[in-house]
Amino acid sequence: MWASMSAQSDGQTLRIYAALLDGSSFVSLDTGDVLTASIGGNDVVLVREPNDAPGDVHYTRALPAPAAETPVAIALTRPTGRISAPSSQVSVASGFSITSSPPLAIHRGDLLSVTSRRSRSSIPTPRTIA
User: Fold this and answer.
1) 44 pLDDT exceeds 90?
2) I need a labelling partner for 24 at 20 to 30 A (CA). Which of 53, 81, 102, 126 fits?
3) Is residue 65 located within the same domain as residue 8?
Protein backbone atom coordinates (compact mmCIF):
# COMPACT_ATOMS: atom_id res chain seq x y z
CA MET A 1 0.00 0.00 0.00
CA TRP A 2 1.19 3.53 -0.74
CA ALA A 3 -0.19 7.04 -0.29
CA SER A 4 -0.72 10.07 -2.49
CA MET A 5 -0.86 13.30 -0.47
CA SER A 6 -0.79 17.04 -1.00
CA ALA A 7 -1.58 20.35 0.65
CA GLN A 8 -2.62 23.21 -1.64
CA SER A 9 -3.48 26.82 -0.92
CA ASP A 10 -5.10 29.55 -2.99
CA GLY A 11 -4.16 32.14 -0.36
CA GLN A 12 -7.56 31.91 1.34
CA THR A 13 -8.11 28.18 1.89
CA LEU A 14 -5.69 25.34 2.58
CA ARG A 15 -6.96 22.06 1.12
CA ILE A 16 -5.34 18.83 2.29
CA TYR A 17 -5.72 15.69 0.16
CA ALA A 18 -4.82 12.07 0.91
CA ALA A 19 -5.52 8.84 -0.95
CA LEU A 20 -4.34 5.32 -0.16
CA LEU A 21 -3.63 2.94 -3.00
CA ASP A 22 -2.82 -0.73 -3.43
CA GLY A 23 -1.15 -0.92 -6.82
CA SER A 24 -3.41 1.26 -8.97
CA SER A 25 -6.59 0.69 -6.91
CA PHE A 26 -7.84 3.12 -4.27
CA VAL A 27 -8.24 1.79 -0.72
CA SER A 28 -10.99 2.78 1.73
CA LEU A 29 -10.19 3.14 5.41
CA ASP A 30 -11.25 0.21 7.60
CA THR A 31 -13.22 0.63 10.81
CA GLY A 32 -10.89 2.20 13.38
CA ASP A 33 -8.51 3.68 10.76
CA VAL A 34 -8.14 7.48 10.87
CA LEU A 35 -6.30 9.93 8.61
CA THR A 36 -5.30 13.16 10.36
CA ALA A 37 -3.35 16.26 9.42
CA SER A 38 -1.31 18.32 11.86
CA ILE A 39 -0.70 21.98 11.06
CA GLY A 40 1.08 24.13 13.61
CA GLY A 41 0.23 21.70 16.42
CA ASN A 42 -3.48 21.54 15.53
CA ASP A 43 -4.77 18.11 14.50
CA VAL A 44 -7.75 17.69 12.17
CA VAL A 45 -9.41 14.52 10.86
CA LEU A 46 -9.59 14.10 7.08
CA VAL A 47 -13.00 13.02 5.80
CA ARG A 48 -13.90 10.89 2.80
CA GLU A 49 -14.74 13.12 -0.12
CA PRO A 50 -18.04 12.30 -1.82
CA ASN A 51 -17.38 10.99 -5.31
CA ASP A 52 -19.63 9.62 -8.05
CA ALA A 53 -16.85 7.46 -9.50
CA PRO A 54 -16.84 4.08 -7.74
CA GLY A 55 -13.41 3.12 -6.50
CA ASP A 56 -12.08 6.72 -6.53
CA VAL A 57 -11.49 7.34 -2.81
CA HIS A 58 -9.96 10.56 -1.45
CA TYR A 59 -9.87 12.02 2.05
CA THR A 60 -9.76 15.81 2.37
CA ARG A 61 -10.05 18.77 4.72
CA ALA A 62 -10.30 22.50 4.06
CA LEU A 63 -8.87 25.01 6.56
CA PRO A 64 -7.96 28.70 6.55
CA ALA A 65 -4.71 29.20 4.62
CA PRO A 66 -1.53 29.77 6.63
CA ALA A 67 0.26 33.11 6.17
CA ALA A 68 3.68 31.58 5.45
CA GLU A 69 5.34 28.37 4.26
CA THR A 70 3.95 25.66 6.51
CA PRO A 71 4.79 21.98 7.05
CA VAL A 72 1.82 19.60 7.21
CA ALA A 73 2.13 16.14 8.79
CA ILE A 74 -0.40 13.56 7.60
CA ALA A 75 -0.84 10.45 9.72
CA LEU A 76 -2.64 7.16 9.18
CA THR A 77 -3.49 5.77 12.59
CA ARG A 78 -4.73 2.19 12.80
CA PRO A 79 -5.89 -0.07 15.64
CA THR A 80 -3.33 -2.03 17.67
CA GLY A 81 -1.74 -4.82 15.69
CA ARG A 82 -2.03 -3.02 12.33
CA ILE A 83 0.74 -0.99 10.73
CA SER A 84 0.29 2.80 10.94
CA ALA A 85 2.08 5.61 9.10
CA PRO A 86 2.40 8.24 11.83
CA SER A 87 4.13 11.15 10.10
CA SER A 88 4.18 11.73 6.35
CA GLN A 89 5.29 15.27 5.53
CA VAL A 90 4.12 17.71 2.86
CA SER A 91 4.67 21.47 2.75
CA VAL A 92 2.57 24.43 1.72
CA ALA A 93 4.75 26.99 -0.03
CA SER A 94 4.38 30.67 0.78
CA GLY A 95 2.27 32.72 -1.62
CA PHE A 96 3.61 34.29 -4.80
CA SER A 97 2.45 36.38 -7.74
CA ILE A 98 3.43 35.96 -11.38
CA THR A 99 4.76 39.35 -12.46
CA SER A 100 5.70 38.67 -16.10
CA SER A 101 3.26 38.87 -18.99
CA PRO A 102 2.36 35.61 -20.74
CA PRO A 103 3.35 35.22 -24.41
CA LEU A 104 0.67 35.51 -27.10
CA ALA A 105 1.37 31.91 -28.14
CA ILE A 106 3.46 28.99 -26.90
CA HIS A 107 4.11 25.62 -28.47
CA ARG A 108 5.35 22.30 -27.14
CA GLY A 109 9.12 22.46 -26.70
CA ASP A 110 9.22 26.27 -26.39
CA LEU A 111 10.97 27.75 -23.37
CA LEU A 112 8.76 29.87 -21.19
CA SER A 113 10.29 32.44 -18.87
CA VAL A 114 8.17 33.22 -15.82
CA THR A 115 8.98 35.88 -13.25
CA SER A 116 7.36 35.57 -9.84
CA ARG A 117 7.40 37.54 -6.64
CA ARG A 118 6.94 36.06 -3.17
CA SER A 119 4.07 37.68 -1.31
CA ARG A 120 6.34 38.60 1.59
CA SER A 121 9.25 39.82 -0.53
CA SER A 122 9.68 42.64 -3.03
CA ILE A 123 12.55 40.83 -4.79
CA PRO A 124 11.35 39.14 -8.02
CA THR A 125 12.52 35.56 -8.48
CA PRO A 126 13.04 34.60 -12.16
CA ARG A 127 12.12 31.04 -13.12
CA THR A 128 12.56 29.24 -16.43
CA ILE A 129 10.20 26.38 -17.08
CA ALA A 130 10.84 24.01 -19.98
Assistant:
1) yes
2) 81
3) yes
